[in-house]
Write a structure and sequence with these properties.
Layout lengths: L2 E3 L5 E3 L3 E2 L6 H13 L4 E3 L7 H11 L7 E6 L6 H15 L4 E6 L6 H13 L3 E7 L3 H9 L7 E5 L7 H9 L3 E5 L13 H10 L3 H11 L3 E2 L6 H8 L8 H8 L14 H8 L4
Parallel strand pairs: 3-4, 4-5, 5-6, 6-7, 7-8, 8-9, 9-10
Antiparallel strand pairs: 1-2
Helix pairs in contact: 1-2, 2-3, 3-4, 7-8
């Protein structure tokens, strides 16, 4: 399995399995189990997904040694702040049924981010977290966090797909040695991504699916991917992206699809920020 090396030397699988919007506990557990059996070793969840326990059950059921699995989870806004972050982290440990987390992320750039980061730095120093990072941080917020704290985030997980390619943002991350990680690699099917003529033509050329082409395009850009599916055959297919290579022409053609805008929301929209604050679990 291909890995990337984070800025603290920790090795992270380049392809993982995400569980966002897999709300049914039984379905989530089975999907994670199928992913682990298919060879995935990175599982990405979050407290706000409300399925950490199902993920933990699947990991235990798999029988795979804990040290072979890379677990990512995230701190939600309601738990931002030094004391609350410490409690939320412990709750995630309990739900996941593990004694350490491989990668712990601040889920959204709101609330007491700095109190949360201080708590995470301490948990990192204690060995309870192998790497700490952020999610959904725009370049300005990321650089501000870096400038005022001791530990540089190892990862920034952001919306990244053919229609929102994060080229400029990734340049900033590279400058500060922060690994970019894609959420929503398939744009949740928006813009008819699986029927896009360009992507279909490239997929046909390589005798691969559009999904595999998208994941390989991200992989060749050095971006960690965490595709989600509840269908076993697609879970297996999404991991099978290392036996072909996109040409420079392919990569440049896909680059033309970039709109440089989110297909979902803006973290600078006051109404969206207010809505996020209201999400409790």
């Amino acid at each position: 399995m291909q890995h990337v090396t984070l800025n603290n030397g920790v090795k992270m699988p380049a392809v993982g399995f995400g569980v966002y919007q897999i709300d049914d506990a039984t379905q989530c557990e089975q999907s994670v189990y199928d992913a682990l059996m298919a060879g995935y070793r990175l599982i990405d969840t979050a407290a706000a997904y409300r399925n950490e326990e199902a993920v933990g059950n699947a990991i235990r059921r798999s029988g795979i040694p804990r040290e072979e699995i890379f677990i990512t989870t995230k701190l939600w806004i309601q738990d931002a702040g030094y004391e609350k972050a410490k409690k939320a982290f412990q709750k995630s440990l309990t739900q996941l049924q593990v004694d350490y987390i491989d990668l712990y992320l601040i889920h959204q750039p709101f609330g007491d981010v700095y109190g949360s980061w201080r708590a995470m730095e301490e948990l990192y120093d204690e060995g309870k977290i192998k790497a700490i990072g952020v999610s959904n941080f725009y370049p300005d917020r990321l650089v501000d966090l870096i400038m005022h704290n001791r530990i540089v985030p190892a990862v920034n997980q952001v919306e990244t797909h053919p229609f929102c390619q994060q080229v400029e943002s990734n340049d900033v991350m590279k400058e500060h040695d922060v690994q970019i990680m894609s959420w929503g690699p398939f744009a949740e099917g928006k813009n008819n991504i699986f029927e896009n003529e360009l992507l279909v033509s490239i997929a046909e050329k390589h005798q691969k699916s559009v999904a595999q082409v998208i994941l390989r395009w991200l992989n060749q850009r050095g971006i960690v991917v965490i595709p989600k599916s509840v269908h076993k055959e697609r879970i297996i297919e999404n991991a099978d992206i290392m036996d072909f290579e996109l040409s420079h022409e392919d990569m440049q053609s896909i680059a033309t699809l970039d709109t440089k805008e989110s297909l979902f929301f803006s973290h600078r929209d006051p109404n969206f920020i207010k809505m996020l604050q209201q999400i409790k679990f």
